[in-house]
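Example record for the data management plan.
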Amino acid sequence: MKIVVASGKGGTGKSMFASSLALLFSEITNVVACDCDVDAPNLGLWLGVTTYDSVEAISTSERAKINNEKCVGCGKCFENCAFGAVEKIDSRFIINPLLCEGCGVCQLVCPTKAIDLAPVMNGEIRIKKTKWGFPLVSGQLKPGETGSGKIVQELRKRADELSHEIMILDAAAGIGCPVIASITGCDYAVLVTEPTPSGFSDLMRVLEVVNHFSVPYGVILNKWDINPEASQRIEKWSGERFLGKISYDREVVNSIVNLRPVILSKSKVKKEIRGIFGKIQESIEKE
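Corresponding structural encoding:
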């Protein structure tokens, strides 16, 4: 069973809830947690993780390089590069590595086969057995590199190799490649929102992705009491998909500052999260 926690908008409480979900499921079955926000991974912080047992450098992208001995200066690579990565200096052409996306168009149009695509070590896969007894698999895209969605695919492969009954995936914000790679193939999606215009708008956007892949889902309303009127509208809109709401509590912030899981803190939201956990179990059984 693969359960993804997503929202569309950043800062709604995805990682807070994903960490809580992993801990709660670990009380009854084997769990593996995946931090799929490879641009800014922070699920580990909610679980008290600061170091990893293993760090593996990986390559999920390529970068073009021109062989000057074969290049005849025809300029077809320069004309066809959609990213402006091919630059002309005097009569020579070079590849700007900061702009190259590794798409391979330049290699396809080169009449003399003067362009090669070389693998780039653009990210890392990190694994840690948490003190709660279950493993955390996290990815990290290197600064300035591309291929975040492919790194998510790789970390999911590593997670699949570990013994588990439940996989909890903490998706990135937005609806881009890493989010799509997180949602694809999941059995259930927990969508976390907040009672703000941007929170609800971005929930609708990520819901399009979830529906596209036909993933059953439920909705959680975090920090509901900062705007009770908007919360009521979202709850009504969610209908039978509504899993519950979580109050705003400063103690939640103190939890991550002290690298302490929320459900093990003194926060009043512990009871609310456990109640939502029960609803998720019921929803999964229905689906």
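Summary line stored alongside the record: The mean pLDDT is 95.
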